[in-house]
Automatic annotation (TrEMBL):
<feature type="transmembrane region" description="Helical">
    <location>
        <begin position="244"/>
        <end position="267"/>
    </location>
</feature>
<feature type="transmembrane region" description="Helical">
    <location>
        <begin position="177"/>
        <end position="194"/>
    </location>
</feature>
<dbReference type="GO" id="GO:0005886">
    <property type="term" value="C:plasma membrane"/>
</dbReference>
<feature type="transmembrane region" description="Helical">
    <location>
        <begin position="465"/>
        <end position="485"/>
    </location>
</feature>
<feature type="transmembrane region" description="Helical">
    <location>
        <begin position="288"/>
        <end position="312"/>
    </location>
</feature>
<keyword id="KW-0812">Transmembrane</keyword>
<feature type="transmembrane region" description="Helical">
    <location>
        <begin position="427"/>
        <end position="445"/>
    </location>
</feature>
<dbReference type="InterPro" id="IPR011701">
    <property type="entry name" value="MFS"/>
</dbReference>
<feature type="region of interest" description="Disordered">
    <location>
        <begin position="567"/>
        <end position="587"/>
    </location>
</feature>
<dbReference type="InterPro" id="IPR036259">
    <property type="entry name" value="MFS_trans_sf"/>
</dbReference>
<keyword id="KW-0813">Transport</keyword>
<keyword id="KW-1133">Transmembrane helix</keyword>
<feature type="domain" description="Major facilitator superfamily (MFS) profile">
    <location>
        <begin position="13"/>
        <end position="552"/>
    </location>
</feature>
<feature type="transmembrane region" description="Helical">
    <location>
        <begin position="214"/>
        <end position="232"/>
    </location>
</feature>
<dbReference type="Pfam" id="PF07690">
    <property type="entry name" value="MFS_1"/>
</dbReference>
<feature type="transmembrane region" description="Helical">
    <location>
        <begin position="85"/>
        <end position="102"/>
    </location>
</feature>
<feature type="transmembrane region" description="Helical">
    <location>
        <begin position="21"/>
        <end position="42"/>
    </location>
</feature>
């Protein structure tokens, strides 16, 4: 067994936490691209309006739970030991993966089984994500921290894209295999973590902030759930922003979060140390992280819809095989992440993280401009180049941004800071569902009805039937494209199709008609989406350049020494090797 004093311990810590982060984030996206196979496997009709909520909760349930819990679990890591919480997370994650693969039900029951156990799996994933960066920060010196965080954080970001590829491949075989793949790696990681990792940070006994935890969980869940449900049609409107329940969630959730902020300023040991936001580096780094996460999450959804619903069918791929090929065609983005991430971490140790974090987001913005200019039926070589550049930009940003955030906080607050960073990142993923789907639906609402009506009547569909279909909420068409599903046959029904000439009926239900029909309206929505992504990337780049107000070096040193003494007087070192954490990095 390698002790904390051993020169190789830090590499053991990095390897295990990278595996944990990778598994946790792969599972945030592996279901995303496997939904067609899952819905087919449990016999759920994706076009049934009553099943839209199943789709949304399968998409957002995991991400929502991780967004809500990572701060609490990071804080618990500060209090009871980061490794202890991390190890428990590995075990929970592995056990729930086994249970998910054993779903015994069909239809709505099968969907609820998956949603419920995915929520519990997310608790384990949140334990891993909340404490991995803090464990690495404790194990590595300031000179190597950027490189180590680069490997770890880029593995997490790349995991979300690896999940797309892996989900596409495994879903082609058996939808349950997307959970089977976690089991051997989860068992290995759990045993390895329990045998090899040691708490080397400073543990600070404290009381659990129950009111803070409760108001944060309720408020954030209400807001994020309301934003997600806002994309569903309501009362004759294309979206549900006038739905009383959505408004209640938005307004009520915001008020509860205000109450949370008040509580956190009045308790002795807050779960969310608001004082950290007095540091400009911490605040701007997290704001940039949130904006980048929204833009990145929105890009994932848009590219999957573009490939599965339009480009792949236009190029002769059957709808059943589009998840597999969509994952394969997105590989260049993952390669970009993997190529740039560790390198950016290493270089940021030498030259400082700010320019890399800012430059990475500007590179992402340039790639969004390129994607904006592509036609619906694009040249793949150009598309692959642009998503590779996008991956490079994300990789350049990830590690330096994390280094900026983690190096701006005291050593005994690194668990909470790691959880807060993960909260902004995961909340951005959930927000991207509501923000980008809403923007896309708004873009589709203008041009899709006319396009649908004209396209259907040109094939002999009666005008009344065509107009009825054209007036259906655009979100249904959007979800059909997202799931790689041709809805025309089901919308028209056998009676209408049977009355049409055979050639027209075959054309309507073939591979080409539906994607050609929605390509132009989809591109209208895509223009709005990508302009928003460009604005977010540029804003994040500017935020990454902000610096804290400098103080005199001597005063800074004295202040830091006082902080360290205060930490040591209150803390319980977990190891003889704990010592004093190195001075805060001057990023």
């Amino acid at each position: 067994m390698i002790t904390v004093d051993h020169p190789r311990y830090k590499w053991v810590a990095l390897s295990n936490t990278t595996l944990g982060n990778l598994l946790a984030t792969i599972n945030s996206s592996i279901v995303l691209i496997s939904l067609p196979a899952i819905f087919k496997g449990i016999h759920v009709d994706p076009l049934d309006a009553g099943n839209v909520s199943y789709l949304l909760w399968m998409l957002m349930g995991y991400m929502l739970v991780t967004a809500v819990l990572v701060v609490t679990l990071g804080r618990l890591g500060d209090m009871y030991g980061r490794v202890k919480i991390y190890n428990a997370g590995f075990a929970i994650f592995t056990i729930t993966s086994i249970i998910l693969s054993l779903d015994p039900f069909d239809g709505g029951g099968g969907a609820l089984w998956l949603i419920g156990w995915r929520v519990l799996q997310a608790v384990g994933g949140a334990m891993l994500m909340a404490n991995s960066a803090a464990i690495i920060t404790d194990a590595f010196s300031a000179e190597q921290r950027g490189m180590a965080l680069g490997v770890n954080i880029v593995s997490a970001l790349a995991g979300s894209f690896i999940g797309l590829v892996l989900g596409g491949v495994l879903a082609e075989w058996d939808w349950r295999s997307i959970f089977w793949v976690n089991i051997p790696l989860g068992v290995l990681g759990t045993v390895w973590a329990y045998r090899s990792l040691h708490d080397t940070g400073v543990r600070r006994p404290a009381k659990i902030d129950w009111w803070g935890n409760a108001t944060f969980a309720v408020g954030l869940t209400a807001v994020l759930a309301a934003i997600t449900y806002g994309i569903q049609p309501y009362g004759g409107h294309t979206m549900g922003w006038s739905n009383p329940w959505v408004l209640t969630g938005l307004i009520g959730g915001a008020l509860v979060l205000v109450a949370f902020g008040v509580i956190e300023t009045r308790v002795a040991e807050p779960m969310f140390p608001l004082g950290l936001f007095k540091n400009i580096g911490f605040t701007s780094g997290n704001a940039a992280n949130l904006l980048a996460s929204i833009a990145r999450g929105g890009l994932q959804f848009m590219l999957i819809i573009w490939l599965q619903g339009i480009w792949l069918p236009l190029h002769g791929y059957d709808y059943e095989s589009t998840p597999l090929w969509a994952g394969i065609y997105l590989v260049p983005m993952t390669i970009g992440f993997l190529a740039a991430g560790p390198l950016a971490g290493y270089l940021s140790d030498k030259f400082g993280p700010r320019l890399f974090a800012s430059g990475g987001l500007l590179v992402m913005a340039v790639s969004f401009v390129g994607l904006l200019l592509l036609p619906g039926d694009f040249n793949y070589a150009v598309f692959a180049t642009l998503i590779f550049i996008n991956g490079l930009g994300g990789g350049l940003f990830a590690a330096p941004n994390t280094s900026l955030i983690m190096s701006s906080v005291p050593a005994n607050m690194r668990g909470a800071a790691s959880g807060m960073r993960a909260t902004f990142q995961n909340a951005g993923q959930v927000l991207s569902i509501g923000v980008f789907f809403s923007l896309m639906v708004a873009g589709l609402a203008d041009s899709l009805p006319g396009t649908l009506s004209t396209g259907l009547t040109s094939q002999g569909v009666p005008v009344d039937t065509a107009n009825t279909i054209a007036q259906l909420p655009p979100v249904g068409t959007l979800f059909a494209a997202f799931l790689g599903f041709n809805p025309i046959g089901e919308l028209l029904g056998p009676a209408v199709l049977g009355a049409l000439p055979a050639a027209n009926a075959a054309n309507l239900t073939g591979l080409q008609f539906f994607p050609r029909l929605i390509a132009e309206p989809f591109h209208d929505g895509l223009v709005i989406v990508f302009w928003m992504a460009i604005a977010m990337a540029v804003a994040g780049a500017l935020l990454s350049l902000l610096r804290s107000r400098k103080v005199a070096p001597a005063a800074e040193f004295v202040a830091h020494e006082a902080e360290v003494k205060a930490e040591l007087s209150d803390a319980q070192p977990l190891s003889p090797a704990t010592g004093v954490s190195e001075p805060l990095d001057r990023a």
